[in-house]
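Researcher: Batch entry, complex prediction.
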Amino acid sequence: DAGVIQSPRHEVTEMGQEVTLRCKPISGHDYLFWYRQTMMRGLELLIYFNNNVPIDDSGMPEDRFSAKMPNASFSTLKIQPSEPRDSAVYFCASSFNRGYGYTFGSGTRLTVV
Amino acid sequence: DQQVKQNSPSLSVQEGRISILNCDYTNSMFDYFLWYKKYPAEGPTFLISISSIKDKNEDGRFTVFLNKSAKHLSLHIVPSQPGDSAVYFCAARNSGGSNYKLTFGKGTLLTVNP
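Model: C-alpha cells for the complex:
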C-alpha cells in the first residue's frame, strides 16, 4: 500500500493566486481529514469527510478555503485567493471505519509570497 | 481555546535515559488519547494510544500513562535512542455523538543526544 499520497510536496505561489492541494487516501478508508500545521497553532483540523460527504468544516478559516471529495480516492483543498498568512504545511490523513488512528500523508508545504 | 496542551515546546535528553513528554487536556468528553511522532518533511505517524478506561499502556520502550482526574497524560520512552529525536504530538478524541475527529496539541520537539 502506497499510503496517503499528497501533491505537490512544495508549492510557492504569489498572493492572490489560486492554489489547489491534492490528496489520495488509502484505498478502503472511509474518513478523510485535512489538517494545517503552523508554529503558532500546531496541527489544526480544517475539514473532514466520511464516505465523500463533508461532516465538519468548522475549522475552515474563511470562505477563501474550500474542499471537495468527488470520489473515494481523491480530495482537493483549494485556496482562492491565497494570502501570505496561508503559508503552512497542509496534511491529508485517512482512516478506516472510525478507526483509532489516522494515516497521514507527507504534507504539502505552501509558501505564499 | 486549546483543548489539548503540550506546554514544553522542546526536551533534550541523553541517550539511554528516560524521556517524559507531557500533555494536558481540558475537555472531559475526551475518551481516547494518542501519541504521534513526526520526523522532518514527513507526516505524523501513530505511535501509541490509550483508552480512558485504562491508566497505562505499554508497547516496547514506549509507555503512556493517563491520569483522568488530573486530565493529564504522559509518554515515557525508556531507554531513549537518537532515532527517537522527532516532534511528538499528543491527540485526543471525543467519541460522543457523530463527530469523529482528533484534536492535537502543538507538539514537543524531543532531541536525544548520543
